[in-house]
Hints:
There is one protein chain. This protein has two domains: 7-257, Alpha-Beta Barrel (TIM Barrel); 321-386, Arc Repressor Mutant, subunit A (Orthogonal Bundle), CATH 1.10.10. A nine-stranded mixed beta sheet has the order 7-8-6-5-4-3-2-1-9, with helices on both faces. It has a three-stranded antiparallel beta sheet with strand order 10-11-12. The chain contains 16 helices and 15 strands. It has helices at 35-53, 73-86, 103-106, 109-115, 129-134, 141-154, 171-183, 201-207, 216-232, 251-257, 284-294, 306-317, 326-332, 343-351, 372-379, 382-386, and strands spanning 7-13, 58-65, 89-99, 119-125, 157-164, 188-193, 237-239, 242-244, 262-265, 270-273, 276-280, 298-303, 324-325, 355-358, 361-364. It has 387 residues and is an alpha/beta fold.
Amino acid sequence: MPAADDLALYIHWPFCLKKCPYCDFNSHVRDVVDADAWQAALLADLAHEHALTSGRRVGSIFFGGGTPSLMPPALAGALIGEAERLWGLAQDAEITLEANPTSYEAGKFADFRSAGVNRVSLGVQSLHDEALAFLGREHSAAEAMAAVESAQDLFGRVSFDLIYARPGQSAAEWEAELARALAFGTEHLSLYQLTIEPGTGFAGAVARGRLTPMDADEAADLFVLTQEQTEAAGLPAYEISNHAREGAQSHHNLTYWRYRDYVGIGPGAHGRRGGMATIRHKKPEAFLRRVGENGHGMSEERALAPEEALSEALLMGLRLAEGIDLAALAARFDTTPDALIDRQRAEFYAGLGFVMLAGDRITVTPQGMPLLDALLAELVSSDLCAA
């Protein structure tokens, strides 16, 4: 697991294979990318962040996107090598590549392993061709299963994701699909309910009456089924949508959820470090231009007010099965545990079985997790929510 002072690096590769109905990076589809120019720009962005965080150690690197597995493996290797030279890597540093399970990308896995990647997270999304077509994916179910097997042959650590609560999906169908996923024996699964994000193709289809999202009660039933099935298979939820064997939790994502520092590199990347919020320019050409002008791709850097940071820490931490040590969090921000949550509301929901209070630790129970968004609005102190 990551040490409390370890940095996480998030490196965003902005380019996609094609337009898809739930991605807001549709303007980032490219047939040709100048890999040398991007390597120089990303290395410069990395050096800028190191100057502000020297003396730290990197505990994890996550190549996200976009479609980061379209990145030349040599570029990934250069970034990993530079991170090691600048900061130093933890002995058990987790270096993850997000990948789409097309046969083309799976064929590059060995090169990414040679470059230093030691964990792969595959965007499988479904094990059914009809569902993949609905989700706008290029790969087939057969390709996805082959990619999982290929990744398991090459990497010690493999995760893949599935999307459920799709329109018309029955409990029996999801139970069978999840059983097939669990049978692969990967150490980690990310299981997300389909959400309709504003500005996406799905949102437009809903507005035009061409798509009807699953009823909320039906989706809640599938959530409960998911928790029971993964728990029985030895992959309990450690976060509301993430399941892992003991010791196989994502080190990188735990840094986010425990509200520790992470550095965002590349177009559109966000970061949190030293009490500052950072955002890089989102459009690739603007990012490259700003790096050339300023030596970094930053579009915004601002100090987080203590109330805003505390609110973020609570909203992230309560997603975790381990919950939050309110005393430890209060000490980090020089406040008191009672200033963080509405104790009266917490005790009320504890009485209903949705929350567990044990001293200064607060945890949302498995019964409360399907209601997490509503509970967060009730539990987090109104003073922090106002911030």
